[in-house]
Specification:
The structure holds two protein chains of two kinds. Chain A is an all-beta fold. Chain A contains no helices and eleven strands. In chain A, strands 2, 4, 5, 6, 9, 10 and 11 form a seven-stranded mixed beta sheet that branches. A four-stranded antiparallel beta sheet of chain A has the order 1-3-8-7, with no helix packed on it. In chain A, strand 7 and strand 8 form a beta hairpin. Chain B is an all-beta fold. Chain B is built from no helices and eleven strands. In chain B, the strands form two sheets. In chain B, strands 2, 4, 5, 9, 10 and 11 form a six-stranded mixed beta sheet that branches. The termini of chain B are far apart. The chains are: A mainly beta, B mainly beta. Chains A and B meet through strand 4, strand 5, strand 9 and strand 10 of A and strand 5 and strand 10 of B.
């Protein structure tokens, strides 16, 4: 039973560029949440996707956008990258009936230079 | 005031020690509570949910005090493998809205 997978594992981008991160949820899960974890901080909620729609959003600017596909996988897009966007981006999956029981993927470590 | 606040770390303890972590949350309407564990450069993993009546899982005991908006985690007979960062997590809205609010975490180092 495959857990949550994310790609790529590491990424280095330059200020102003755009980036796309990918997530495949755990088998049987239909809800994907994205979190940003800066060094020394706890994860911060970005948004959650269910039935291919953004259902909730945290306090992140519009530069952060996402998508969920019919197979429940998801992408996180960040435009106009800033140095402060450097962080570990975590994807968590859950089911529609138990959104709080979230399983995290290994994350994508993004470095913006 | 931060939504979820935890004890500052790090906690350095010898093997076999008992260690307690505390956490406070700001929103009295909070409905669900958890402790997650995160190893260095790894993803967070659910350690245990926290119920109003308190709950125990082996060497781990979690307590919730809604009146004081306070959550605790007690680890007995600590092992080297318990070394990790422990994250206090709260959900304000219940199961229909699944965004989790994390504390900054408290680092635990168990020494031989």
């Amino acid at each position: 039973d495959a857990g949550v997978t994310q790609s790529p594992t590491h990424l280095i981008k330059t200020r102003g560029q755009q980036v796309t991160l990918r997530c495949s949820p755990k088998s049987g899960h239909d809800t994907v949440s994205w979190y940003q974890q800066a060094l020394g901080q706890g994860p911060q909620f970005i948004f959650q996707y269910y039935e291919e729609e953004e259902r909730q959003r945290g306090n992140f600017p519009d530069r952060f956008s996402g998508h969920q596909f019919p197979n429940y996988s998801s992408e996180l897009n960040v435009n106009a990258l800033l140095l402060g966007d450097s962080a570990l981006y975590l994807c968590a999956s859950s089911t529609g009936t138990s959104k709080l029981e979230q399983y995290f993927g290994p994350g994508t470590r993004l470095t913006v230079t | 005031r931060k939504e979820v606040e935890q004890d500052p770390g790090p906690f350095n303890v010898p093997e076999g020690a008992t260690v307690a972590f505390n956490c406070t949350y700001s929103n009295s309407a909070s409905q669900s509570f958890f402790w997650y564990r995160q190893d260095c450069r790894k993803e967070p993993k659910l350690l245990m949910s926290v119920y109003s009546s308190g709950n125990e899982d082996g060497r781990f005991t979690a307590q919730l005090n809604r009146a004081s908006q306070y959550i605790s985690l007690l680890i007995r007979d600590s092992k080297l493998s318990d070394s990790a960062t422990y994250l206090c997590v709260v959900n304000f809205y219940g199961g229909s809205q699944g965004n989790l609010i994390f504390g900054k975490g408290t680092k635990l180092s168990v020494k031989p």
